[in-house]
Design brief:
This protein is an alpha+beta fold. The protein has 2 domains: 12-220, Up-down Bundle (Four Helix Bundle (Hemerythrin (Met), subunit A)); 251-360, 3-layer Sandwich (Rieske Iron-sulfur Protein), CATH 2.102.10. It is 45% helix and 12% strand. It is built from 10 helices and 11 strands. It has helices at 12-39, 45-73, 78-82, 84-106, 114-120, 134-149, 153-159, 161-168, 171-185, 195-225, and strands at residues 251-255, 264-269, 272-279, 282-287, 301-303, 306-308, 315-316, 333-334, 336-339, 342-345, 359-360. Strands 2, 3, 4, 8 and 11 form a 5-stranded antiparallel sheet that branches. A 3-stranded antiparallel sheet has the order 1-10-9, with no helix packed on it. A 3-stranded antiparallel sheet has the order 5-6-7, with no helix packed on it. The longest helix has 31 residues, at 195-225. The chain is elongated and about 80 Å long. Mean pLDDT is 81; it is low at 229-244 and 364-369.
């Protein structure tokens, strides 16, 4: 952790990660070039460069979208997820080379402004001409630029995590636009027929991973809320808790005794995910989203009395949600209560920086028998 911004934290892991990215890019470009030259010897160098960089950028963006669901399905992909920003910036750079060379090759040497030429040279859907695939590429490149330019922690802190996440969720729109760019571009000339099955298969794989991971996560959420597997009314505690024991509106979540000491459990709450932690006998609840890089706090542990994010080690007090000095990060906290062995959580977050209402597990005292033996 650091309370000052740095351009890039070049840890040994990140160096290895970036070297692997570059190596994979080089291997792909060489393999693409070799296969294309062998199967289509008439293709010019300019066309070869455009196809190689364009297809590489599309595949890299597809892999970026697949990292999230893969990491939710298996922790083996977490190291890739931790450094996903580097891969995103590399994807933008490859796409930028593709776009810049296309403009230079086809639009920069005429009498019309290059940008105007890009947006108008394809015609339109209504005039019976060619499909306008190049404007889609410009839109996709613009979105990738915004995400690459705001990938630093400085923007995450100043835009606030909610706005930053919303901005970076536009990657799905960019992917749809670029899929149209690739698919429509395949209609513009000979030798591009292979783009249809390849692009379709890649996009279908990404969609299938997202869908499967979402369904699996939904099953885990239901299991976390109702471990017995039976039906449960998540919106009210009436008929379950004793009168006055749990305030009105609290939602039943996990079994309190099943949370290991120093660990947490992630549960859904009001459309969001929160983390219920146990620190000794004390039960508390915080937001599951780390303010640093949106890491899952519920998968971390309590170290030195603070909830520690498993991604980059950022820490928060489990009661107040405040990071220890000199850091000033704060996360949402939620009031909790224990009734019938379950943890009940107020779905309305407390004001940032205020102490939450916690609950304590009952202490079990074992009495000695008359013979002196402990049952």
């Amino acid at each position: 952790m650091s309370h000052v911004y740095q351009a890039v934290g070049w840890s040994p892991q990140k160096r290895k990660y970036d070297l692997l990215i570059v190596l994979c890019m080089v291997v792909y470009l060489c393999g693409f070039t070799g296969i294309t030259v062998a199967t289509q010897p008439h293709v010019t160098f300019e066309t070869l460069l455009l196809r190689a960089t364009g297809s590489l950028a599309f595949l890299m963006l597809s892999f970026i979208l697949a990292i999230g669901p893969l990491a939710r399905l298996s922790p083996r992909f977490l190291p890739v997820l931790y450094n996903r920003r580097h891969l995103g910036v590399a994807t933008f750079l490859v796409a930028l080379v593709h776009g810049a060379f296309a403009i230079l090759q086809f639009h920069a040497l005429g009498d019309v402004n290059p940008l105007t030429s890009v947006l108008s040279s394809d015609g339109s859907f209504g005039d019976g001409g060619a499909f306008p695939f190049q404007p889609l590429g410009v839109i996709g490149l613009g979105v990738l630029f915004l995400m690459a330019a705001t990938s630093h922690d400085f923007w995450l802190a100043n835009l606030t995590p909610r706005v930053w996440k919303g901005l970076h969720m536009t990657v799905y729109g960019a992917y749809a636009v670029l899929l149209g760019h690739v698919a429509l571009g395949a209609l513009q000339g000979e030798g591009k027929e292979y783009l249809w099955p390849v692009a379709g298969a890649v996009a279908a794989t990404v969609f299938a991973l997202q869908l499967y991971a979402g369904l699996a996560e939904r099953r885990r959420d239901r299991a976390a809320i109702d471990p017995s597997g039976g039906p449960d009314d998540l919106g009210s505690h009436e008929g379950t808790a004793s009168s006055g024991a749990v305030p009105e509106g609290f939602v039943r979540t996990v079994v309190a005794g099943e949370i290991p000491d120093g660990e947490g459990r992630v549960v859904p709450l009001g459309g969001e995910r929160v983390a219920v932690f146990r620190n000794g006998t004390e039960i508390s609840c915080i937001s599951n989203v780390c303010r640093h890089q949106m890491g899952p706090l519920g998968e971390g542990r309590i170290i030195d009395g603070c909830i520690t994010c498993p991604w980059h080690g950022f820490q928060y007090d489990p009661v107040t949600g405040c990071a220890p000095p000199p850091f000033d990060d704060r996360i949402d906290t939620y009031d909790v209560a224990i009734q019938d062995g379950f943890v009940w959580v107020n779905p309305v977050a407390n004001p940032l920086g205020t102490a939450s209402r916690t609950a304590r597990l009952p202490v079990v005292v074992q009495a000695a028998t008359p013979s002196g033996e402990t049952p």
